[in-house]
């Protein structure tokens, strides 16, 4: 696929280099088109080395090829990272004062802009009006992430991680390719693989108003689905309660309770090459779900809620896999706390042994750890007893590490993909 990668003049320009690498590793032909301001952050040599092509910024360069027209005509996808406030304004206004804005005017293919700027700039009415206008014209403008910005400030305005942008970009073009050719034209180390990912926290109803739940935001599970998509996999995403948007390009299945999650996973598991059980499943549910709201009255005793165990979905998926003899890799997650009896790692190793999955991703959790945060630190344990692997950083970075480990496990098993079958 012919992709034009535009780079705006912002501190997040360095992440565009990582995105360029993702595109080229997936087999796409990428032309980098930075603005002059972008070259103040990342030099021309970097873009030429990563793309393997000469880099130009002005409309009077390579005039003999009519470059300012040709790039937009030939592009099958245009992605701009980071889309600064100035670049959004120029794109919305139809400016054509450099090669990138000319290309945006000429392009008739899908266009994706990934904004990054300070919070006040993003929230300014002028920027919001520009974004609304671009979206009205059919341009995909991602919402910025929330997190640490340049300097001590944090808030909305952070560039989404490259894996997330990659997945969103592929989501714009793969459905069209699927409609034209009858199959998704995916590439990457997991091309041809089907991955089933669960995410989010289940909610166990007490009555029509109340439920038992947990602190899971679903961020890590969504990041895992994005990383699998970026690696070329076909992803089914079974989502309980999420505080984030589900990943673009995945087949979305919505569930609420643990029993609904169990049914969705069991139904779809036979078609999966890999199962990643990242959902935070409630261990217990109320034995009785009241049909009407439980009333609080002064003349009655406090209500007593009896709990019963929810099914062990991970263990059941392993048991069903083993009984069917399927060549399937299953990854579990453990959100653990240590105590006087054993360490976090001890509890995780015991869980890995009991569940029977091939990999277990350990989170040490607490009220100020993991849940709802943008960063994570995990230990990946393997059933074969190999040395535990540590990964930390943003949840997208952790997800990428987990998917890389999954890829290595599949290669070691030499399981044939569905493309080869």
**How many domains?**
2
Mean pLDDT: 86
Task: Summarize the amount of helix as a percent range.
Answer: 25-40%
The name CATH uses for the topology of the largest domain is: Rossmann fold
Total number of β-strand segments? 19
Strands in their spatial order, largest beta sheet: 12-11-8-13-16-17-18-19
Radius of gyration: 24 Å
Major pleated sheet: 8 strands, mixed
User: Would you identify the CATH architecture of the largest domain?
Assistant: 3-Layer(aba) Sandwich
Which class of the largest domain in CATH terms?
Alpha Beta
Q: Outline the low-pLDDT stretches.
A: 175-185, 415-421
Please provide a written account of the structure.
There is one protein chain. The two termini are 26 Å apart. By secondary structure, the chain is α/β, with parallel strands linked by helices. α8 (162-181) crosses α9. The protein has helices at residues 13-25, 44-51, 67-74, 85-92, 99-106, 119-123, 125-136, 162-181, 219-230, 258-268, 313-324, 344-355, 395-413, and strands at residues 2-7, 29-34, 77-83, 111-115, 140-141, 145-148, 154-158, 194-199, 204-205, 211-212, 234-239, 251-254, 274-277, 284-286, 307-309, 329-336, 359-364, 375-382, 389-394. A hairpin with a 5-residue loop joins β6 and β7 (154-158). The strands form 5 sheets. Strands 12-11-8-13-16-17-18-19 form an 8-stranded mixed β-sheet, with helices on both faces. The chain has a 5-stranded parallel β-sheet with strand order 2-1-3-4-5, with helices on both faces.
